[in-house]
Amino acid sequence: MTLVxxxxxxxxxxxxxxxxxxxxxxxxxxxxxxxAVPEAxxxxxxxxxxxxxxxxxxxxxLASQETLLAAARTARAAQxxxxxxxxxxxxxxIGNFGRLVEDNAEAxxxxxxxxxxxxxxxxxxxxxxxxxxxxxxxxxxxxLYGETVPSEMPDKQLFTFREPVGVLMVITAGNFPVAVxxxxxxxxxxxxxxxxxKPAEYAAACAAALTELARHAGLPAGVLxxxxxxxxxxxxxxxxxxxxxxxxxxxxxGSTAVGREIGALCGRYLQTPCLELGGKNPMVIAPDADxxxxxxxxxxxxxxxxxxxxxxxxxLIVHESVYxxxxxxxxxxxxxxxxxxPTRDVLYGPLLDARYAAAFEGYLELIRxxxxxxxxxALGRISVGAPRRGFVGDPADGxxxxxxxxxxxLPDDELFxxxxxxxxxxxxxxxxxQEAIELANLPGYGLxxxxxxxxPATVFRFRRGIGAGMVSVNTSTSGAxxxxxxxxxxxxxxxxxxxxxxxxxxVTRWQSVNWDYSGRLxxxxxxxxxxxxxxxxxxxxxx
Length: 543
Prior knowledge:
Blueprint: E1 12-13, E2 17-18, E3 44-49, E4 52-61, H1 65-84, H2 87-103, H3 105-116, H4 120-140, E5 147-150, E6 156-164, E7 167-171, H5 179-190, E8 194-198, H6 204-215, E9 224-226, H7 231-243, E10 249-253, H8 256-268, E11 274-276, E12 281-285, H9 291-303, E13 313-319, H10 323-336, H11 354-364, E14 372-374, E15 404-407, H12 414-417, E16 424-430, H13 433-441, E17 448-452, H14 456-465, E18 470-473, H15 504-507, E19 508-516
Parallel strand pairs: 1-4, 7-8, 7-10, 8-9, 10-11, 12-13, 12-17, 13-16, 15-16, 17-18
Antiparallel strand pairs: 2-9, 3-4, 5-6, 6-19, 14-15
């Protein structure tokens, strides 16, 4: 694939955006603690609009491992003061952040569309998710409850307290460049942690905008830093920060392969990261399903955001009795879906970045002779030579690809077993519900799943048998709400959960307090006074 790289003419995004200094004052938009960007910073790369490759959204100066380490030191120094701020007051700051996002929602959504090519309607929904997350956690600032626990000893009281973990390093992908980061940033900051955030390089302008809004919400200096870096610098910087005792928790959203590496690295320092990884998300179509509704859910699940969600539909598992009717209607829906300019009313726009486009072309090479392909007028990149009927805009401008449905996938196919990030969906059939559940679990991922049926017994049998962390009934595999736990199992994650009150266990630690005010040493289990009982007593038997 040949790309034209335009001259770098956009605004520069430096490695660190340190929170605290208002715009126009010393420290705003500069390096750590307001200083100059470290000399060890890496190269400058362009973040380009994938829908119009001639449009440079930002020049991004990538950070070195030394810069990441410096950011962690700054966070470590700032965190205790932030933790001393009462939690309800920290909640007010989160509320300010949500209000600023809401008041700047259209500008932020349009930047998301410009930098990563997400259709504007979806980008607006993504921004709304930040607002919803902030609204939820404003109240949690007054609900970081511990417990008062009765003791087995007299004149003694037991308590539990939630305490911040300390410094988090958060590493996020760019398919949700502002919503998914907010899942980490908002609860972590609310609970009194400091955060070093490493966003995707190709979404650095969105990251800088979100950081700027957080800066104006009232966060103290050093509590949140945004550090764009490539993979090598991030890995080296993270390892050095862990070794130096500067990072207490890692949050990672990205591929399963990188998640394994981060999990192994954190394990060497006896830390458990929060891992939100890939998915091969199944959708089961039962014999009694509403087929038209299932087609709409499959179309959005498989091809919304160009199939570039961790929750995107991977494989359709359709009962053989309704396969023919479903396939015909689904083919019509995919063939007629509007694709193109993401500022228009389209199902999806371009792929995120040239690297993802190249990877998607590799997935297309996994199509075999026994597969039957439908969904568009061609395979691969949409172009003058391989046009897409009804395309909106000029396909030569961006990284636009045909939707692909691959019918006849088999359990041994790589297309069946592996995540394929992009607009491609597999299709297969089943006879019994147990067979469908086994097929759904076979790839070993466990993020999202869906079933279309009107039978409650089928729903509960599927729910109990599926290994996914999330189950949808008569709706798409995608569509998380901000107050429900989000996360997966197996190859999709390590069981950690984001969103809602469940994420608090990722960003806080429990502390137990034993308070003995008896004036004497009381030893649990040994000095416990238990009233004597006669356990040999039996009621007389009536005659």
